[in-house]
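JOB MANIFEST
job_type = single_chain_structure
chain_count = 1
residues = 335
[input]
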Amino acid sequence: MSFSDKPRLVVTAGEPAGIGPDLCIQIAQQSLPCRLTVIADRHVLAQRAAQLGLPLQLHEGDAGDEFSSCQEGHLHVLHVPVKNPVVSGQLDAGNAAYVLTTLRLAVETCSTHQADAMVTAPVHKGIISESGIAFSGHTEYLSELTNSHAVMMLAGGGMRVTLATTHLPLKEVPAAITPERLEQKLRIIHRDLVNRFAIENPRIAVAGLNPHAGESGHLGREEIDIIIPVLEKLRREGMNLLGPLPADTLFNTPKLKDYDCIFVMYHDQGLPTLKHASFGQGVNISLGMPIIRTSVDHGTALELAGTGKADAGSMNTAIETALALVETTRHTKNN
């Protein structure tokens, strides 16, 4: 593959006080099979590289520039300045707008076909909210930017887990489990499994909301009144949907081979099991957006920033997954 044919990725460095800059510097120590541009403050990257004692040559320019280094020790950077000086491990609400600017630029770069996919390092929801900017989550913000209805998928440990609801207080989840939401998300999941993962007839296991999937209505009626009618409707259209199934046995290892994807009703119903099996090696994938976006499966790890102890495993997985999705999408479009 010629250099110009290699996929082009944009990477956002995330919260500058966290391990996002560390991860970007670590991946710059590798020879990658792609053209890559990091969207970040070049001074933060240079300072963090010095702090880590790692070699780094920065090449500044637009994401659409012809040169995007994939050589060891080099990093192509689209410079976005932070507002306030960055100290590793110390959050500063003054830099919240900087974080969101990097995300907007990454979306713009992908939307204008200057890049094939975006990969995101972790942001800190709390400090963005404290800055006065309404922010419910990374995926939700990108969904708004792309005017789409994104579905969060985490993959790892032999599982793909998708969510009906994401960052909601638990008491608000039942009201959010509506027929419209479930149908919309299941259609998106099915479509992207076919088009981006090349799974011809995806098998999607659907969790119930209540313990024991409602125990025939004795432990709640959401399964009977909401979930089952949606599943029956979509099955009549040809979707291969299993459930609703009790969440406490849904992740039984022998059963996982029977599913291409698991659809759970709320964040902590599915992600603790997946992260137990794959933490630090998993990947967050946004389905339903017009662009390809992957991300790490962990947070900002402020205590590790600048220490040299951050593990780039999930970032590497996010890059590998983005490249695989680009390749599959290209193949699908050409056939």
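[summary]
Residues 313-333 form the longest helix (21 residues).
DSSP finds twelve helices and twelve strands in the chain.
exit_status = 0
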